[in-house]
Amino acid sequence: MSTQSDLQASFVNFNLRFGLRVLQRGLLLSTPLILVISVGLYFLFQSSQASFYAQRQADHKSVVQEMFQMFQLEIQWVMRDVKYLGQLESLRRFALNRTPADRELAEQKLAEIMQSRYGLYDQLRFIDTEGQELIRIDGTSLGVRIRDPETLQDKSHRYYFQNSINIRLGEYYVSPFDLNIENGAIQKPLNPVIRIARPVRNELGEPLGIVIINYKGGRLLARLREISVVTAGQVWLVNGEGYWLLGPSTEQEWGFMLPAGNNQRLDILYPEIWKKLKGGTDGRFESDLTSEGIVSFSRVRPERVSPNIVSESLGSILYFIVWLSPDLMAVDTEELRMEYLSLFWLLVMVVISFGVAFAFVSQTREETKSQLRSLAEREANEQSFLSAVNSSPTPMLLVDHSHQIRVVNQAAAGLFGYSDYQLVGMQVDELLPHRFRAHHGEYMTNYQNRPVAREMSASTELYCLTSDNREVAVSISLSPTPWKDELMTMASVTDIGKQLQLQNELIDVQSKLAMAVANAGLGIWTLNLSSRHFEFDDQLLSMFGFGKEAVNSADPSNWIARIADEDVSQVKKSFADAVKLRSGFDIEFRIAPQDEPTRWIHCVGHLITDQRATEEYLVGICRDVTSEHSARQSLHEVNAELEKRVRQRTQELENTNRELEAFSYSVSHDLRTPLRSLDGFSQILLKGYTSELDEKGQDYLRRIRAASQRMGNLIDDLLNLSRITRADVEHTRLDLSEMAGEQLAELRELDPDREVQLVAPDMLIVHADRALVRILLQNLLSNAWKFTARAEHARIEIGTTNIDGNQYFFVKDNGVGFDMKYAGKLFGAFQRLHHADDFAGTGIGLATVKRVVSKHGGRIFAEAEPDNGATFYFSLEGEHG
Q: Tell me, what's the pLDDT at 7?
């Protein structure tokens, strides 16, 4: 009975699948023809729709042209009246004489014009050249009204006066279309106007004022609204800035003048339409289909009405627009769309019917072939499956619902010690140790009822039993696998004996590491940032003075409480920075365990995340560094004592130097008086007693005098050196090139017969003490002047260069130079590298130069070569100040 039911169900399933295949194939065969029909109907629909839109655009063109002609006629009408008023003799006479009689006559004439145009004009005015209204005729709902002179207003600030008073002869000014303003406020109710003006001129053509007509724009707007009622679409009037003068609603109109209307612009609400308008050509009808509907428009400037019109470039532009919204377009084309859609579905049903009939015949023929191929493919798939299982290096067993092994591979046979033929047909629990067999059948049944790919008892150690009764540690993965029209279980078995051995070795290494950490006195801790759970080892517990029985030590706040108050904020900041920057921390802080002295703790660590990146932890290692900190403190105290002694010795040395300098200064002054006496008396003897002294005596006197003068020069140099030592350095901005030129000029005055070339840049700026730098340049340039005396073309150069990244200045000459082996004593006092008979000098000059450079914190050295000149390089640290 069960077999018969299975056959019936199989037959029903076959018929259902067959019918679905026939329908699917019929649809597949029909699809290309349906696509062809769809494309053809689509293009026919598009063509019909395009023709419909073209007709709409043609209708809109007529409307736009009618709107422009209406505007043109209105403006031309007003221009004729403005011209007539501007030529009125009575108005010209009043402009010249300003008498009450002339005013009355002119007002009467303008009132007659206003009466004849009643309802067309809002105002007729005559404004003088200063912008003051002199005559104003209002066309009110109660009739024509002549305004009293005291109610007339100053319009000199209004744009239409400023733009019309100076136009050329024969020109008219047409204002932008806007709202009338009275006494500085927009007139209520709103009064749209266009102002057309023309100067009133005297016989010489000079302006006496302007006559201006306020055309009631509401009249034009009302006529445009009448057109809108009978037009398919909305009729708009938009100015050059994108504001509606006639728009979708009254709330959206005149936005450029009303307080809350700034956002009511076409470029904001309909940007694509506005882009089309901005790209339009003046006076040309244009129409386009956009995503915002069909827009037909003409861009018009007042100059299109008459070439004699002058207007503002942007404000006077008007766009006459007819807009058909997407919603109206959809309504217009919906009927056409439905007709084409009905035709489409009719053709589709016909095509599908033919396709299904053809598919039924073809599918019946192919179904028989398919069943034969399926049998062959099933056998091939089973062979491929067996080949894949056998080639796998992992031991694999395929077990059926009765727990019998149906398929094994060579790897499984090798693991269990059986041949594959022996394993096939065995119950799988025969491969388990006896202690696991009791519950294995129940476990397998539960798995087969809910088969999913998963590990088998990952939390329990599993063992298999080999043919020689050895137990092998394994891990087993189960996965449901179809085979022979049955869902079986594939067991993949892995020998994990070596893995367990490695785990045991890892446990041993971890144990040894824990011993090493304990011996090193390190405390390790972990803080879960989300749960605030704090884990620690015994070493850290002891380090912070907690007993092992302390139950509250897992609370981080209890640990923070042990930290010295002045260090708590630093510790918290280090931890917060590590979390924020996702980095590490390295800090030292003090702790005060109960009843124990203060300790110094060094703590390092970093932020980590778990493998799933769901939890974050701070992990740290702490070490007691109290002894090291004490040692550093002792070393700091010793260094402080040494620094104190050095300062004392330095002060004593400075005092000694000052005493020595004072002594040298005093001695030098005391020696100058007898030296002057020697020189003076020697000179008196040479002049007054020449006849009483022989040549030898006179020679002795000359030698005495020369020696006393040299001694005086030497004392002067020593005094200069002493002054430099005591002088304070005041940095100012100096030009070395300028100062060098002044020094060389002084040398030329002392020795006018010499020709020496000075080479220096235009400006050589340095920040240093002016007096000291003058002494430095005086000595260096005097030396260069002196030692180039024998050069045929004497040349002295001053400049700057860069040495090892530092700025150096130099003084270079092409004189006699010197041997560099004597450079070591070059800057010592009383040191000379040339004989005094060859070159005069005291030997103090370069020592003075070195003292100036030292006072500035700089450095000086020289490079030279005998008979090939010398170069002195010096730096002044103050140059950057």
A: 45
Instruction: Let me know if residue 439 belongs to a domain.
Output: yes
Which CATH number does the domain housing residue 790 bear?
3.30.565.10
* pLDDT band with cut points at 50, 70 and 90 for residue 161: very high
pLDDT at 831 > cutoff 60: no
Quote the tokens at residue 27: 């649809």
Q: Are residues 520 and 486 in the same domain?
A: no
Q: Taking the C-alpha atoms of 823, 829, 835 and 837 in order, what is their torsion angle to the nearest 10 degrees? A: 150
In whole angstroms, what is the distance from residue 617 CA to residue 532 CA? 9
The strand pairing partners of 144, in sequence order, are 139
Has residue 469 been placed in a domain? Answer: yes
Domain boundary among 624, 659, 678: 624
Taking residues 136-151, what's their average pLDDT? Answer: 91
Where among 200, 219, 238 does a domain terminate? 219
Of 702, 767, 698, 779, nearest to 736 by C-alpha is 767
Instruction: Give yes or no for a contact between 742 and 781, defined as CB atoms under 8 angstroms apart.
Output: no
308-347 residue pLDDT tens: 888 776 667 888 888 887 877 777 777 777 887 888 888 8
Task: Give the C-alpha separation, 243 to 411, whole Å.
Answer: 86
Q: What is the predicted pLDDT for the residue at 101? A: 92
What pLDDT digit, counting tens, does each position of 459-475 carry?
567 888 888 888 888 87
Residues 471 and 511 in one domain: no
Q: State residue 255 phi and psi, 5-degree precision.
A: -65, -25
Question: Buried b vs exposed e over 527-554: b needs ≥16 C-beta within 10 Å?
Answer: beeeeeebebbebbbebbebeeeeeebe
Considering only CA atoms, which of 463, 400, 405, 399 is closest in space to residue 435?
463
pLDDT at residue 881 above 50? Answer: no
Question: Does one domain contain both 477 and 515?
Answer: no
Rg (CA), the chain: 57
| DSSP string of 733-754, one letter each residue | EEEHHHHHHHHHHHHHHHSTT-
Instruction: Check if the beta carbon of residue 315 is closer than 8 Å to that of residue 176.
Output: yes
For residue 657, the tally of other CB atoms under 10 A from its CB is 11
Cα dist from 804 to 467, 575, 801, 807, 810, whole Å: 85, 44, 10, 9, 15
For residue 237, being part of any structural domain is answered with no
Query: What per-residue confidence (pLDDT) applies to 68?
Result: 84
462 and 563 inside one domain: no
For the chain, give percent helix, strand, coil, nearest 5.
50, 25, 25
Nearest 5°: the CA angle 377, 380, 381 is 85
Q: Count of domains in the chain?
A: 4
Between 516 and 605, the higher pLDDT residue: 605
Same domain, 450 and 563: no
C-alpha 544/C-alpha 525 separation (Å) is 12
Residue position matching structure tokens 């090193």: 520
CATH number at residue 112: 3.30.450.20
Written as one string, the DSSP assignment of 429-447 is GGGS-HHHHHHHHHHHHHH
Same domain, 566 and 587: yes
The angle subtended at Cα 266 by Cα 262 and Cα 268, nearest 5°, is 65
Six token digits for residue 372: 């034969």
Co-location of 475 and 599 in the same domain: no
Rounded to whole angstroms, the Cα distance separating 127 from 132 reads 5
* Residues of the domain holding 214: 87-219
User: Does 475 fall in a domain?
Assistant: yes
Residues 726-747: tens digit of each pLDDT: 667 788 899 988 988 888 888 8
Same domain? For 214 and 101 the reply is: yes
| CA-angle at 284, arms to 282 and 290, nearest 5° | 100
What DSSP string describes 544-557? TT--TT-SGGGSHH
Distance (Å, whole) CA 287 – CA 683: 118
Helix, strand, or coil here: 168?
coil
- Torsion over CA of 553, 558, 562 and 564, rounded to 10 degrees? 160
